[in-house]
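[09:14] KT: can someone run the structure on this one? pasting the chain below
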Amino acid sequence: MIINCGNIKTLDYADKLKLVAGKNGLDRVIKWVHFMENPEYINWLKGGELILITGVLMDIDINTLLNLITDLNLKNASGLVINIGPYIEKTPSKAIKLADSLDFPIFELPFEFRLIDISQSICKAIFMNRIEQESMNSFMKNILSGDLECNEETINRAMFYGYNSSVIAHL
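[09:31] RB: done, structure tokens below
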């Protein structure tokens, strides 16, 4: 399963996330999770990151948050998780409107839940997805190159990966 903003809530701990903006951008793929408390580090992003903030080191005002959302969107970040609590009490309505206009997902997470749990859960799912993809690619490469004998085990493995068993049997 490719991890995106729309399916992360199915992961451990992520069920505590509340989508507050950008519902039309839930198909954005999450390549990694990144904690970012200093907006100056935005230039280090590669794209595809889900950004987590608490606001602890940011002098958060509405313009700082609006600029952050705009810049994250321009850097092709996947979305933003705001840890709602003592530093950011709630996502401002102007930020929600901006994110909605950009189809940029913003999630809120109550402060009593640990960001590290969500980060680990998402990163583990991304890692497991990559392993599965590499295994599937290797399997297909071996099938197509004739390095695997077409037997019941091979056909079962192909079906596990979602391939049509009758096509594999004819290779």
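[09:33] KT: thanks! The chain has two domains: 8-125, 136-169.
[09:34] RB: yep, looked fine to me
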